[in-house]
Specification:
- By secondary structure, the protein is α/β, with parallel strands linked by helices.
- Helix content is 36%, strand content 18%.
- The chain contains 23 helices and 23 strands.
- The strands form 5 sheets. It has a 6-stranded parallel β-sheet with strand order 5-4-6-7-9-8, sandwiched between helices. Strands 14-13-12-15-16-17 form a 6-stranded parallel β-sheet, sandwiched between helices.
- The radius of gyration is 25 Å and the shape is globular.
- The mean pLDDT is 95.
């Protein structure tokens, strides 16, 4: 039996029939479809979504975004909160609408988060070429701007004929539901093909369940990993995002308690082990805690679980200074498990940790190691308390804003952040006890992610309060989804931190000898020709109000605390606005990040920074 539908109608009906299952729990795979319509998709995917909604022939809810990049970010926020078991699709028109999604695709793929992208494309028949917004390439008529998605997608295809759709859809679902391969999946849809009718086999639209496996460690690989760990005297665990996506927090806790090994975390893995657990030592790497970084420097074995070892995690390969350090890499992706010449353990994080715990029965670190962790944690907690209650004047320090929010939030509340100086301060200082409380996008660290990502997180967890921390730089890049939140009646708590510029890069610039050049929001001074005049009269609070949010302006930490309570009590999206001092002190991570400094310069500040850079670089090494 067949059913006659357009390609777009068939696509929508197929997506509405897909499910995932893990550990016996089944859920819809595609929760809905974000979109912004233009001439490239309004009569294709747009018509199909309308028809599905009005006839009930397919249950796929449409959500209107205000920016195409933002709708991909919202999709990432949603899928991350749902542990990569559920996703959104995103439809965009030809040309700029589609290329606006490229940044979001890169963010999704780098973070290993699934999202289905449906950019519109030129006419497959070429009947009317060149189209409005079509790229012409003299070398080939088969090139379009959507080829830009290829390097940032885990699977890419262009559907030039209806007959190609079934195989492309099945391949797309395979990648979206594979924890080792997942990321952005792109199916480019030519405008004319979207509207073309075809007789489809009814089997294409039957409910289909994609089983998400928990790969078990291969016995010989497990044996090699256990041998390395049993000989360790100063081991350290690095818990990455894979621990959380695998729902392996309880398994990690049991492993830590059985072995006594200290557990550090990455940005994506923060919350995998509660901050006040005796084995928890905080973030590791360039923006980590001095406790974790001191242990990392001396560690003889690093057990990385679900981490891809970014430069922030390894402090640009200076974190691990023991000349005999070895790595055991437990990861569902062989690509990550093979890094740093480690003992590769390709497996699901939960399954792998359970196997290691059993195989390491009888192993426990020396009591002196445990006592050292206890002492260092106690000292660090005093430092954090001081930073959280600094009493900085006349404007509060950013650490005080984070402290007020951290102390105010309930365990199941969610904090969302992505870019600027706040991710570093958060990884170093934030205290989280729930695996889903800490939502910081630091794979791509994309300015503008925060509000859209927070919207997706709230859609995934409507029973949690979501607090979006956004700096003025990120806010100015992408605040539009406040309108979407208001339109959909989705309540967000936004904390808008104003420091009059790109504070994070300003601090980095100064440390590299570039004197905060081009990082402050100022008038151009006619005499110097530089942007170092008076502060610009930009009112971000008024801007947020104009987008439909309630706004509370605060000046002190006490006022901020009261505003947070008011925001929580409200059922409307609320922005709490506060100004901070970008020059206020922050505790040191006692670590390093490799940002090359000019080898030659006429500036004394750059020359001094280069000297410091060369000294730090001497600790950099390959792990072979």
């Amino acid at each position: 039996m067949t059913v006659r539908l357009t390609v777009a109608q068939a696509l929508v009906r197929f997506l509405a029939s897909q499910y995932t299952e893990r550990d016996g729990v089944r859920q819809r795979l595609v929760e809905g479809c974000w979109g912004i319509f233009g001439h490239g998709n309004v009569a294709g995917v747009g018509q199909a979504l309308l028809q599905a909604q009005q006839t009930g022939e397919a249950d796929l809810k449409y959500y209107m975004a205000r920016n195409e990049q933002a709708m991909v970010h919202a999709s990432v926020g949603f899928a991350r909160m749902r542990n990569r078991l559920q996703i959104f699709a995103c439809t965009a028109s030809i040309g700029p609408g589609s290329t606006n999604m490229v940044t979001g695709a890169a963010l999704a793929t780098i973070n290993r988060i699934p999202v289905l992208l449906l950019p519109s494309d030129y006419f497959a028949t070429r009947a009317a070429s060149p189209l409005l917004q079509e790229l012409e390439d003299p070398r080939s008529y088969d090139v379009s701007v959507n080829d830009a998605f290829k390097p940032v997608s885990r699977f890419w295809d262009r559907i030039s004929r209806p007959e190609q759709l079934p195989s492309a859809l099945l391949a797309a679902m395979r990648v979206l539901t594979d924890p080792a391969e997942t990321g952005a999946v792109t199916l480019a849809l030519p405008q004319d093909v979207q509207a073309e009718a075809h007789d489809w086999p009814e089997q294409l639209f039957t409910e289909r369940t994609w089983f998400v496996p928990r790969p078990q460690p291969e016995p010989s690989a497990l044996g090699r990993a256990v041998e390395v760990l049993r000989n360790a005297r100063r081991p350290l665990v690095i818990a990455g995002g894979g621990v959380i996506y695998s729902e392996a927090s309880a398994a990690l806790r049991r492993f830590a308690e059985a072995t006594g090994i200290g557990v550090s975390d990455t940005q994506a893995g923060k919350g995998a082990l509660a901050w006040d657990h005796p084995c928890a030592v905080g973030g590791v790497g360039a923006t980590g805690s001095p406790v974790a970084n001191a242990l990392a420097r001396e560690a003889d074995v690093i057990l990385g679980v679900g981490t891809r070892y970014s430069d922030f995690t390894t402090a640009s390969r200076t974190a691990f200074q023991n000349p005999d350090v070895k790595f055991v890499n437990l990861n569902v992706a062989a690509f990550d498990a093979g890094k740093h010449a480690g003992a590769s353990l390709v497996a699901d994080a939960r399954a792998g940790l359970e196997a290691l715990t059993t195989a390491l029965t009888g192993y426990h670190v020396d009591p002196g190691y445990t006592a050292r962790i206890d002492s260092a944690n106690a000292a660090w907690r005093r430092v954090v308390e001081h930073a959280y209650h600094l009493g900085h004047q006349p404007l509060p320090a950013q650490t005080e804003i984070l402290g007020a929010l951290n102390e105010f939030m309930d365990e199941r509340d969610v904090v969302v952040q992505a870019a600027g100086s706040m991710p570093g301060d958060l990884q170093m200082l934030w205290r989280t006890r729930d695996p889903k409380q800490y939502h910081v996008e630091y794979g791509y660290s994309c300015m503008g992610y925060e509000i859209a990502g927070g919207l997706g997180a709230k859609m995934a967890a409507p029973d949690r309060e979501v607090f979006v921390l956004v700096g003025d730089g990120s806010y100015l890049m992408m605040a539009q989804e406040i309108v979407t939140a208001v339109s959909e009646g989705i309540k967000l708590n936004l904390v808008l931190v104003q420091n009059q510029g790109f504070g994070s890069i300003g601090s980095l610039s100064e440390s590299l000898g570039s004197q905060r050049f081009g990082t402050r929001y100022r008038y151009r001074d006619p005499s110097s020709g530089l942007l170092d005049g008076d502060v610009l009269p930009v009112d971000l609070a008024a801007n947020a109000a104009s987008l439909g949010a309630d706004v509370i302006k605060t000046r002190t930490v006490k006022e901020l605390q009261a505003a947070l309570a008011q925001s929580r009590a409200s059922d409307r999206t609320t922005v709490t606005y506060i100004e901070t001092d970008p020059l206020a002190p922050v505790p040191s991570s006692e670590s390093w990040w490799d940002v090359p400094v000019s080898q030659t310069s006429a500036l004394d500040s750059t020359q001094q920074a280069r000297t410091a850079y060369e000294a730090a670089q001497r600790d950099q090494r390959m792990y072979l």
